Amino acid sequence: MEVTVTHIEAGTIRPDWLQERAEIDIIVPPEARVQAPITVLHLQGALDGSGYITLLEATQEQISTEAPRLILDFTGVNSISNSGLLGLYMAGSLLHGEPIHDLDGYEVTSRMRNAIEDGQPLTYLHLAALNDDLTSVLESTGFRPLVTTYPTLEEAISRFPGR
Questions:
Q1: pLDDT tens across 68-116, in order?
Q2: Element (H, E) at 127
Q3: Domain segments of the chain: what residues?
Q4: Rounded to 5 degrees, what are φ and ψ at 33?
Q5: Are strands 148-150 and 70-80 parallel, antiparallel or unpaired?
Q6: What is the CA radius of gyration of the chain?
Q7: What are the angstrom distances between the C-alpha of 145 and each of 19, 57, 76, 110?
Q8: Domain 2-8+36-153 grouped into CATH 3.40.1830.10
Q9: Residues 114, 106 contacting (CB under 8 angstroms)
């Protein structure tokens, strides 16, 4: 899996309530802008047993740069496996500051199942542009309630909470 990174600087997108007013251009004062940046990871290929390692490395790198709000762009993803779902869960957990580095696969799987059962969403990790097959995988595995998804990357960027 290949991952490219785009940084969205704080305050570059107007809030939803301003975007709805198409007939007038309104300048947003700096104090009305959100001060937390978002990083977009553009994924390519299969999110599987080897691909999720790349995702975790990229997530860890973003945490170290203090940009822990991620949107994963799935435009170039053609498949996702159970290991890929675990990788998504682990990435979301890392963003929440949960120590998962020393856990084995069984413990991570158990935590993911508990999160699904308890309805604990991964609030700092959002997914964009999933095709129908990938959406079906999220639905059929029960993973869908853990993440917020958007039909397009542009919508994910503009609607990320706190933007």
A1: 688 999 998 999 999 899 999 999 998 888 877 677 778 888 989 999 9
A2: strand 125-128
A3: 2-8+36-153
A4: -85, 150
A5: unpaired
A6: 16
A7: 27, 24, 22, 16
A8: no
A9: no
Q: Which amino acid is at 67?
A: A
Contact call for residues 44 and 74 (beta carbons, < 8 A) = no
Q: Read off the pLDDT of residues 13-59 as tens digits, 9 standing for 90 and up.
A: 344 443 443 333 334 334 434 445 788 888 888 888 888 888 888 88
- Written as six digits, the tokens of 75 are 């435009």
DSSP string, 69-110: -EEEEEEEEEEE-HHHHHHHHHHHHHHTT---TT--HHHHHH
User: At 29, which amino acid appears?
Assistant: P
Distance, CA of 42 to CA of 62 (rounded, Å): 13
